[in-house]
Design a protein that fits this description.
2 copies of one chain form a homodimer. Chain A contains 11 helices and no strands. The structure holds a DNA duplex (30 and 30 nucleotides).
Chain lengths: 231, 231
DNA sequence: ACACTGGTATCTACACCGTAGGTCTACGAA
DNA sequence: TTCGTAGACCTACGGTGTAGATACCAGTGT
């Protein structure tokens, strides 16, 4: 028992040991965990452990876990650049689409959040970062001469296409990448042969999916279709 | 202490009190819960309670909760009719699309499962009910003269469109349905006015979204686009 | 110098979750 | 009768999100 009265200001480890928790740091760390292990492995406790803080401190920067997930989706979506001053609106939409695809492929585990979270929140209550791309596309299109409703229509068509495409592309994950035979690589040999003959016969076609080309073709069709008669 | 030796065959309540649990009953009940309260409110314990059984009995019919969710998605998707003998393939695709939309609107809370679960499972390991519509569309299209890869391509385009559209349409939920003013009804008055001027100005356009018409237009564009040059 | 105050970090606790493992019961076959 | 087996039930474990109490600490008024 040495100097029982001495109570130095710092004792057993600075309470905010690494750094002073901020919303950005928290969301960045959450994104990292999700990228590595998927959404369902992200828990408040694990996130706090990764940040070297008490779990409850997280609630200072997000009212609950759902809001935290919204925040993660927001940080990813905020990396989507939209140049609303581009005079060639169609080219800019193409560029946005390509960037969106790149983002989705960079964070495949976040895609369920991107497509699903908006279903849970009425539009006006969504995190502002989520609405920014929408507003940006709207200004791009109205500057190009479209009316408001038409711009909205085109925005919806574009992101419908994007969501659909990204979901398609991310499904093309491979069962056993080391296998050389497409049928085995995709695990299709497990299918009851009498029941799914066509599906089984398309092994090589399935294996040679080209996401980038597929998206370009979708954009071709969409942009051509938008040029034809008004809704 | 009366007759300590007496041990009647039925004691405190028939152990399977309501009925003899089956996979169908289990999935139907799970679907009901999800329809009412959403996915995150479905727990094994609550499902068991609703079925008047022990939670652990559920594991006799599904190896784990993820499989149960897959089963729910499967039961919904199995209600999607595809007539692969229809000689007019385009008309049949339209019909499938409309039925899919109707299904999604009937079970909006299941849609996250429909679009998300496939991301977690390689194609060949998915529940067979999930692959049935795929095989059916493929036979429809090959009977119509398309090659296998082309049929696959069209299938992907169709379901990309459908997923995108359904996600779009289900976002259009309204914040406060009693309000007459569109701006208030959508809660758009809460947006910082300087930041989202266009979005705010589109309140009435947002409020008058017509999902059925939008889908038809998407189908028009898609089917027209498929008629033009080959990939 | 002191007491007080208000915000922040931490701790404890609660109700619930998914599910591994063991036990009890009922029933068809030998 | 005995046995094997399949199904239902129970208990228990480690985890979850988060409400609420508590501990701390800077800043301010006196």
């Amino acid at each position: 028992m040495v100097a029982p009265t001495a109570r130095p200001t710092v004792e057993v480890g600075d309470p905010p040991p690494t750094k002073r928790l901020s919303r950005e740091r928290m969301l960045a760390c959450a994104l990292e965990i999700i990228d590595q292990d998927g959404i369902e492995k992200l828990s408040m406790r694990r996130l706090a452990r990764a940040l070297d803080h008490d779990p409850m401190s997280l609630y200072r920067h997000a009212p609950n876990k759902a809001a935290l997930l919204d925040g993660v989706a927001e940080t990813v979506l905020n990396q989507l650049e939209v140049d609303s001053t581009d005079p060639d609106w169609a080219a800019q939409l193409r560029a946005v689409a390509r960037r969106y695809r790149r983002l989705a492929l960079a964070h495949p585990n976040v895609v369920p959040l991107l497509v699903t979270r908006p279903l849970a929140t009425p539009l006006a209550l969504r995190p502002k970062g989520t609405l920014r791309p929408l507003e940006a596309v709207l200004t791009l299109l109205t500057r190009a001469g479209f009316t408001g409703p038409d711009a909205l229509h085109i925005y919806r068509a574009l992101f419908g296409l994007l969501h659909g495409h990204v979901l398609n592309e991310l499904q093309e994950l491979v069962d056993n990448p080391d296998e050389t035979d497409d049928l085995l690589r995709l695990g299709l040999h497990r299918l009851p042969i009498g029941e799914f003959p066509l599906l089984r016969s398309l092994a090589t076609a399935l294996a040679s999916y080209d996401g980038a080309a597929e998206l370009e073709r979708g954009l071709d069709i969409l942009l051509a279709g938008l040029a034809t008669p008004h809704p």
